[in-house]
Amino acid sequence: MDGEIRQLLFLIDTAYDHVSWHGTNLRGSLRGITPKQAAWRPGPRRHNIWELVVHAAYWKYVAWRRLTGAARGSFAENGSNWFERSTDITTKAWQADLRVLAETHRTLRAAVAELDSRTLDRPLGRNSRTTSRALVTGVAAHDIYHGGQIQLLKRLSR
User: For residue 3, how many C-alpha atoms fall within 13 Å in the half-sphere facing its CB?
Assistant: First the structure.
């Protein structure tokens, strides 16, 4: 495997679930959270931790789809971007959504591992300016960003 691809894998892995210098990554921020904590909202019309989890999974799915050219419509939920989580507050439902996040990360990671480093800086499509490199590094930044939000929400909910 090429060094540039290894670097991209390092970025998405440390942002998601590998040891990272910056502190808690996305998966680490979710450790020990109960369904009740995940569903807590800091205010009306504000997202909760649970919704951030599904949102992160969705954008990993979108990145995978853009990298592979897969058709829309195969995400675990109908809709896009934000998915309300406030009615089925059970351990079973929470664990199911954590599995969606983990599985979506694995699927994206496999697609990144298959990239050709010679094409990382080419636009992904005729009507796109986004490159594979920008998309993958963006996923890493997205995970870190929402991991930080989750850390803050955990503290606010106490």
Answer: 0
- Is the separation of the CB atoms in 152 and 25 below 8 Å? no
**Mean pLDDT in the chain?**
94
Radius of gyration of the chain (CA): 16
pTM: 0.95
- Span 28-44, average pLDDT: 96
CATH of 3-157, one of 3.10.20.310, 3.40.50.261, 3.10.20.30, 1.20.120.450: 1.20.120.450
What is the CB neighbour count within 10 angstroms for residue 93? 16
Assess contact for 53 and 30: CB atoms under 8 A: yes
pLDDT digits (tens, 9 = 90+) for 55-79: 999 999 999 999 999 988 889 888 8
**For residue 82, pLDDT beyond 90:** yes
What is the C-alpha to C-alpha distance for residues 47 and 143, in angstroms, rounded to an integer?
Answer: 16
What does the DSSP 8-state code read for residue 114? Answer: T
**Torsion-angle region of 81 (φ positive above 0: left; ψ -120 to 50: alpha; else: beta):** left
